Input
Amino acid sequence: MSQAVGINFKKSSIDALIAGFMALVLFGPIVGVVLDGYGFNTEFVRVAWMVAAVAVGRFIMSSFFQTEKGIAMAFRYANNDEGVEVLKPGHKSKMVWIIPLVIAIGLLVPFIASKYVLTVVILGLIYVLLGLGLNIVVGLAGLLDLGFVGFYAIGAYGLALGYENLGLGFWSMLPIAALMAAVAGAILGFPVLRMHGDYLAIVTLGFGEIIRLILTNWASFTHGPNGVSAPLPTFFGLEFKRRSSDGQTFHEFFNIPYDSAYKYMFIYIVLFAVVWAVLFIKHRLVKMPIGRAWEALREDEIACRSLGLNHVLVKLSAFMLGASTGGLAGVFFATYQGFVNPSSFTFFESALILAIVVLGGMGSTLGVVIAAFCLTVLPEVLREFAEYRVLMFGILMVVMMIWKPRGIVRVTRTGFAARKGVVK
Amino acid sequence: MDIVLQQLVNGLTLGSVYGLIAIGYTMVYGIIGMINFAHGDVYMVSAYITAIALALLTFFGIESFPIILVGTLFLTVAVTGAYGWVIERIAYRPLRSSSRLSVLISAIGMSLILQNYVQLSQGANQQGVPTLLTGALRFHVGDGFVQITYMKLLILFISILGMGVLTYVIQKTKLGRMCRATQQDRKMASILGIDTDKVISTVFVIGAVMAALAGVLVTLDYGAFDFYVGFIIGIKAFTAAVLGGIGSLPGAMLGGLILGLSEALFAGLISSDYKDVFSFSLLVLILIIRPSGLLGKPEVEKV
Output
């Protein structure tokens, strides 16, 4: 830290020149020469701008890291693995009122919002559910699951195909889909979880692709790329259609005019309740021995195994729980769209859910909820930047891993103290 | 019979391509223990650069096939190697001391960046290159015949040449000794005066160069490609690396050949719709049954 402070502009200029040259080599062919049939068009202005931006950026960065502030920052980056922040024993958050407030606002939304806003919010909540599920697997247990979309697909196709072949509706499929996804998670996870963490990432990636390829190719059962229609939920047996083939519909029973927004309102309320239930369960599990075991295993597997934890069962429980949450989200997605096809379950979807967890903070519930809404609602608002969405996710993942690997919202935990009356 | 032989020929060329790409996975895994998720997309970038180099060379009026081939190979290898170096520098080097999960997530981010960057600058449409080398050898077998195009022979020749040169470099040269030393024990190697950061960069460049060879050969043979080709071929090459034993160089080549041959036979004899499912299932099965692969050393984990 006792280096002489003073900016060496010669060094910065050389850094900038090298960066600019590399940028020219990289961007020159791909950005500058756009293929057009067997010929090409040139776009040299774009390249010049990009090269200039890189060189200037590198110059500023190089100079900044020579200043006192920059050196301090670089030093902080080198050891930024702070872990969980432990609060004082008996700490009471001042934000207790926020949960009832959010519930109250959440319950008001379907009655105030327009149908379009409601559909966007439902999509956001579905991703909250997916993010929470993956957060148990990646954030708490430290297992990288790249095929999470496979469980999502199992839930969604479970509803659609269960209705078509067995006549099962939304309410019976909701628990069955969660179970099915959990069983799939167990079958996939049990042999793999014994092995090294990185292999799990690739096996789950392969699993997600296998599911998608089977859905695409097994046309006699899944109707291939054409997709299958999924049923709407029913309100105590009343359907949300304009006309029902058997029995009464919702609006006839309550004697109100038909409105297509009713079904979204109902889906929203059910989904809202399920999200809160999952939040509650997760909140409790983290404080229970199993939740402690997940986090301990993430931090140091060897220490945990020496202390007698069965690492396979602990990991498997996290994996299955995450998978079943993914299955639940799939059922909601299918009923919300009214239709499912394999193109909704590509690897990109898995990457998006992973981006939610990474941005929100590994293991942080609040962070995941915020990140899920940001990453799903923002693209709806900023439609003109839609084509840059994937690029942004990619940059976000790299930058977050370098800058704040634990995510934006830090995980906090109340510390422990001996109970009153216990001899210290 | 002729179908089986024909598929064996196709599988051999496919397998040598998988082997070339698998080298990048296996060397990087051997040296820093990470799965370079963006490697498949480096291959994809090299396919684009191949087409761009071809278009440029044709534009400057060069028509002789050997010169075009050498020029394209040279340009593609150089630029793709630069991509390999920069990717390591930006996305992986700052994370050298972080957890494996962080590095893997960063690699996934890099893969998304490369895909979208190419899509944004080149457009989402499928691109193509003209067929330059035509003609084939034909052998009559029974009633039918087996055909080996000259392009397939060229693929075999160049991949064997590439693998041979690489084996020589790793086994006999000073650079190769430095790579092997860093692979065995990075800390010890750096104490003994090896610039391990430089060695790691070199390994990334070597991986990218091998992927670029594969990119040129497949693009010239197959003709069509888009910004998404890296994903599937990347997983398959990774399967090949795991099959042969990840971290082992001869293992990657062997794994590539086995995967290519079995996939071609599966596609020819059973179903070509499910050939990707077959490869992915093979990957899952190998990892479950024999995670150390055919030639790899079993990973000893002490508790």
